[in-house]
Amino acid sequence: MTTLSTPDLGLLRLPRDENGPVFAEPWEAQAFALAVKLSEQRHFTWKEWAAALAGELKAAEDRGEPDDGTDYYRHWLAALERLAIAKGLTNSAALLERKEAWADAYRQTPHGQPVELEACMPFQCSPLHNVARADGESKQIRIQDGHLFVCQGCCCGRTDRGFPPLPLDEFKRQWKKRGIRRRFHLTVSGCLGPCALANVILIQFHGQSVWFHSINNPEDVDVIYAYIEQMLAGESYLDPPAALAGRHFQRYTVDTISQHECSVEP
């Protein structure tokens, strides 16, 4: 247990011993110290902090969570985030982005090595842009390089209808593991069509669209993400790789169209 000598803060449920507050993990001590420091810098009074913490503890009690002290600093951290947002020190989007950045760093760090958050990890940097909503309020959004849509509609993945299985969990796992979430978005969608070609995916990159069908196994997913990472690394659209050429199709256009081909039977 780590100990930290501090003045009596009057927080009766604070885990402590005769030397002062005690912490089971380093992050608890960091959260504790951050609240103390922000109060010392007059970003909020200690009375405001105590009220925010009491509110979080009361909400946990109302939810029926056990009061055994094991989650005390999780409530502490939640109160700190809520108060920091209320005082304009940060916002929900910034907090979420920082948490996702740490999660990506953790996934990409070899076991046993310390997790470090670099200023810009591979594939994670993309610009922010202010956009005014219809109500006039300005919101900051991240401008991403592209988007991957995976069909999970009426046919894709429906083995009960005779279609091949869809490696959906592998799409999700690799999207997180590869650390591309801040530059390339993933959406599991409804029907993309055409159903006869299931399983269908759509990649949009810098305004270009490319469609693939029969993405049926985890090995296909590896190739898809390797293709995406090549485009991210080069910051430009690339033609589909040879491994996917046989499953690349045009969804809305064809190279040549004749009037005969477009005739409609009565």
Give a written overview of the molecule.
The N terminus and C terminus are likely disordered. This protein has a 5-stranded mixed beta sheet with strand order 7-6-8-9-10, with helices on one face. It has 2 domains: 89 residues, no CATH class; 104 residues, Glutaredoxin. It contains 7 helices and 10 strands. With 266 residues, the protein is α+β, with helices and mostly antiparallel strands. The longest helix is centred in the first third of the chain and has 17 residues.
Quick recap:
By secondary structure, this protein is of the alpha+beta class.
Anisotropy-based shape: elongated
Distance between the termini: 82 Å
Element order, helices and strands? EEEHHHHEEEHEEEHHE
Structural class: alpha+beta
CATH superfamily of the largest domain: Glutaredoxin
* Helical coverage, percent range: 25-40%
> Main sheet?
5 strands, mixed
Count of all domains: 2
Rg, Cα atoms, Å: 25 Å
Strand tally is: 10
Characteristics:
alpha+beta, 7 helices, 5-stranded mixed β-sheet, Glutaredoxin, 10 strands, disordered N terminus
Write the layout of secondary structure elements.
Layout lengths: L1 E2 L12 E2 L2 E4 L2 H15 L5 H17 L9 H15 L5 H17 L19 E5 L5 E5 L3 E6 L16 H10 L6 E6 L11 E5 L2 E5 L5 H17 L7 H4 L2 E2 L17
Parallel strand pairs: 6-7
Antiparallel strand pairs: 1-3, 2-3, 4-5, 6-8, 8-9, 9-10
Helix pairs in contact: 1-3, 2-3, 5-6
